[in-house]
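PROTOCOL LOG
Step 1. Enter all chains and additional molecules of the complex.
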Amino acid sequence: MKGLLETVVRGLGNGSVYALLALGFVIIYKATKVISFAQPALMLAGAVAVSYLVEVTGFYLAVPLAALMIALLALGIERVAIRPMVGRPVFVVAIITLGIDVVIRVVVNHYIGRDVRQMGDPWGFDQVSIGPLVVQERWLAMLAVTAVLVGLLFAFFRYTRYGLAMRAAAYDQETALAQGVSVGAVFALSWGLAGFLAAIAGMFVGTGQGVEQLTWIIALKALPAIILGGLDSLGGAVIGGLTIGVVESLFQSYQGDIAPWLGQNFAVVSPYVVMLLVLLVRPYGLFGTREVERV
Amino acid sequence: MLDVRNLEVVYDDVMLVLRGVSLTVPKGAIVALLGANGAGKSTLLRALSGLLDVHDGEITKGSITLNGEPIHHLRPAQVVQKGVSQVMEGRRILGELTVEENLRVGAHTRARQIDANLERVYGLFPVLKGRRRGVAGYLSGGEQQMLAVGRALMASPEVLLLDEPSLGLAPALVGQIRELIVEINKQGTTVLLVEQNATMALSIASHGYVMETGKIVMDKPAADLLSDEDIKEFYLGLGAEGAAKSFRDVKHYKRRKRWLS
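Step 2. Run joint prediction.
Step 3. Record the structure below.
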């Protein structure tokens, strides 16, 4: 029982990172109807930015600074590469984001070099005991920060002028335009938010193990999360992310004993197995809008 | 005063939909714009509010001025800022948002006056106040129309463009909407009313325009239009032969439409 709970906490910690990334995907998707494949690169860039800034400003200042930097970078990308493509087929824009992803990663790799860069975070692999459980501090930090960010995000969408404008534009762009909402600003804002969240996620991915050139692959686990939660649901992104994290963690702890015939490291592919199952059974995800189409 | 001069609008670079439309909406008036389906009424409104872009339309000639200031090259957000708000055809409520959130979206360009405007809208439409926390998609048709009008009023417009507010509403509700339009106008908002329900529109308007295939074909004070023979027959459905029509007569028009006025 103790082992199971510790496994779940680890899963929730990792899952909250997936949730942050998934939120970025969903925010951009809702605003522009495009899945942005540039998220992994933004995440990596965020982590690397933290690893450099930490030497200058200290960890707690480096994180928000890096997140803002990446948000600005995302704003720039949107303005330069995405905005001119408004009205073009969604597929084309998605491929452009793939290209952007590659470009950013090549540039960022130059700053990573061959070694692993450390975040300089205060948690490392330190452990803490809550009652009988012994868990790593960083899982708790991830969960706490994600909870705060998600809370802020939902308040933003509920109460602020631009949050409402973004929801309106997601629901019906022409109506939003008629109310005086600038849809361009909504696009820009969605990219900025996604960049900010990706940078925070990148920082957490780097805690303990640091970042290297291949770290970006972790961001792909946000895809199973958004498929599970539903592409156009913010709540779904959070729940999907956490679920994927827990599933992966459970496989890590128990698959070796229960199903050794699956081979080692099956946990790495488990999120994608979940994604395949969801796509087969419920392609619009848990909370997504069901596509009704007449043939 | 909203002034449209010789406006030409082309869709998809080929379809000429408005062919030199001129129209004036004096300050503080209610002006009705009548016309059958496909006459170009909605296109004219889109041109006024800057929404042509969404539909691949473009103003190729002419001008639109608000109090002497040209507004036809502005983006939709700027047009709303200048004081021209449109209630689109079919209400276009943001169904997933609550009633109050819908209204707040309408106040996007007038964030400072949000409280005063909310009070005004709730005063005009008490029904909405009762359901302010309810999801807008669950409102009835009449309530949705009120919400759409209220949402446009949240931007404190000088000119309100109404596109078929009576569409799909029961006659009793149409009467209610009619009274609300008069009330809104009394509070100082100029109204351009696009309608198929000509009786309703002309009963409250001071001036009327009739559009057909992208042109204004008639332009008279509302009272004159109401008594015009052609309007009576083709828009109000009570012409000389309207009284007793047998199916034998329905096959052909006895009178041909002639716009020679």
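Step 4. Note key features.
The CA atoms of residues 284 and 292 of chain A lie 11 Å apart.
The longest strand of chain A covers residues 127-130.
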